[in-house]
């Protein structure tokens, strides 16, 4: 008999500012304060693609100023990210819930979805369920790198839930997570799902209030 996985859910509210990002290059010279994760974000790539393109970096957590990093080309842009079936279902459930309370639907944002998916993949690979990633830090660090103009971000995460219906119901049964979904000032959402790992299913949603009012 298959053991039932214990679901994990967490809600969190973070306030943040924006930061600068760099343009993509075929090669990049490391400067003080760089990490491979930061370089990947600034070049619109995922961390795994940077690591695979730089086998000369023996320890991905340790790079030095002046070191040359190869920036892979022909990568899928985060603006081209589309939702899979489960992510689409969760978007529908989220906006239907908001409609029930007389709230405006959230606009799906490809960049936020790219980040949400990367967070879910990271939880799967590193075997954790937490807002503080050993790879990316908290969501403020992830979002700052993309210069997304917003006032606040709320993050719901979960693991062990097979379907969008199950994770949505779990969030609606949590005071914090429900409040995040029903934030009347929120304008945009990113949704990321990953399958595999010790919990089987990993979910992340990033809900933001955009400075420009959702346009």
The structure class reads alpha+beta
Question: Main β-sheet, in a few words?
Answer: 5 strands, mixed
Tally of DSSP β-strands: 7
Q: Residue ranges: pLDDT <50 for 5 or more in a row?
A: 12-24
Structure overview:
This protein has 215 residues and is of the alpha+beta class. The protein has helices at residues 36-42, 47-53, 85-100, 110-126, 139-144, 164-172, 175-181, and strands spanning 8-15, 27-29, 68-70, 107-108, 150-159, 188-196, 200-210. Helix 1 packs across helix 2 (47-53). The longest helix is centred in the middle third of the chain and has 17 residues, at 110-126. The model is unreliable at 12-24 (pLDDT under 50).
Keywords:
215 residues; alpha+beta; 5-stranded mixed beta sheet; 7 helices; 7 strands; 32% helix
Give a topology summary.
Elements: E1 8-15, E2 27-29, H1 36-42, H2 47-53, E3 68-70, H3 85-100, E4 107-108, H4 110-126, H5 139-144, E5 150-159, H6 164-172, H7 175-181, E6 188-196, E7 200-210
Helix pairs in contact: 1-2, 3-6
């Amino acid at each position: 008999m298959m053991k039932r996985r214990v679901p994990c859910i967490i809600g969190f509210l973070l306030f943040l500012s924006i930061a600068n990002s760099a343009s993509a290059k075929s090669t990049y010279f490391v400067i003080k304060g760089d990490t491979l994760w930061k370089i990947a974000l600034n070049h619109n790539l995922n961390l795994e693609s940077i690591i695979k393109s730089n086998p000369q970096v023996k320890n991905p957590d340790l790079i030095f100023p002046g070191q040359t990093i190869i920036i892979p080309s022909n990568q899928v842009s985060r603006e081209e990210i589309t939702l899979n079936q489960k992510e689409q279902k969760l978007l529908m459930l989220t906006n239907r819930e908001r409609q029930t309370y007389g709230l405006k639907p959230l606009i799906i944002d490809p960049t936020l979805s790219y980040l949400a998916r990367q967070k879910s993949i990271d939880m799967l690979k590193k075997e954790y369920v937490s807002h503080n990633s050993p790879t990316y830090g908290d969501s403020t660090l992830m979002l700052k790198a993309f210069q997304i103009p917003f006032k606040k971000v709320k993050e719901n995460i979960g693991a062990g839930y097979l379907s969008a219906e199950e994770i949505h119901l779990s969030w609606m049964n949590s005071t914090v997570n429900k409040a995040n979904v029903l934030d009347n000032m929120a304008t945009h959402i990113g949704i990321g799902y990953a399958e595999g790992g010790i919990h089987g299913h990993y979910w992340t949603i990033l809900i933001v209030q955009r400075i420009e009012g959702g346009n």
